Amino acid sequence: MATVETKNFLEDIAYEKVKNLLHETIGLNFSCYRDEYLKRRLSIRLRATGTYTFSKYLGYLKKNPIEFNNILNDLTINFTTFFRDRDVYDYLEKRVLPVLFNSKEVAIWSAGCATGEEPYSLAILVHKVLGDQLPNYKVTIYASDIDEDALTKAQKGEYTKKQLCDVEDSLIKEYFSHEYTTYRIKDFVKQLVRFEKHDLMKPPLHNNLDLILCRNVMIFFARESQQHVHMHFYNALREGGYLVTGKSEILSGEPCAKFLCIDVNCRVYQKPSKDSSPTSEYRLGVAQVDTLSLNNLTGGQGTIVRR
Ligand SMILES: C[S@@+](CC[C@H](N)C(=O)[O-])C[C@H]1O[C@@H](n2cnc3c(N)ncnc32)[C@H](O)[C@@H]1O
Question: Which domain holds residue 120?
């Protein structure tokens, strides 16, 4: 009879085989996810399929290829809302977009956009800031996700009233057309957004970007994969461009050393330009208590505070 150790060993091997099969079949590198997260999510599928062990699940996957879709749906949790973390959007509206619009051509990337609420919130913000001046600017908001179903919904741009609960009535009136229970994003905002399928582990599709938002995506990724993706972002940004991460995320390793953190609370980072010196517009310092803890967590990250 197999001992507990042997059983665990065989299960570990079967788990690795499941990961490899997923990589070969769907093309998604599942080793970018944290093992504890992946195992927790996969265990839902083990229960749903009645297999209960990775060894049996491996056989099930080979016989039922439709199961690959179920895994993808389970792994890529699409939860999102319009204007998620309102203070981040306030910061973008007041501190970032006005700076970006010193240039007539602006490129933004919403990476891991799920069902489109984030890029459409950005498009509304862009319209709010530029108003009648919008036709004088070329603004593109690239919005990408790995999940095709989510992208199809995003492209439709149709939402229920419940999904708009975080949007003020005045904005709903201005930016959505309304038919029965469906609220459709109006074309003049929709046309600012370009959706595309993209796996964040692969090199970015665009460069020279002014602003990248990648929020609440990296939380599922292993630390090395997070650093890999954040370095992709660093390279895809122009000098002086901004990166916004999710509120529960922090930069670590090389990206942490390369980016300047310009707002700890909203998790806004900037790719420094060659001639920017921390003593001119910004100074290095410890602003608040949460800054201190962030510095400790990230291994001594310098925080930039506007004078
Ligand atoms: C929780 S949603 C975040 C949506 C939005 N950014 C927000 O903060 O509300 C996470 C999204 O990341 C996407 N995602 C997960 N892994 C990905 C990958 N490797 N490449 C691209 N997108 C990924 C999921 O499909 C999902 O739509």
Answer: 86-306
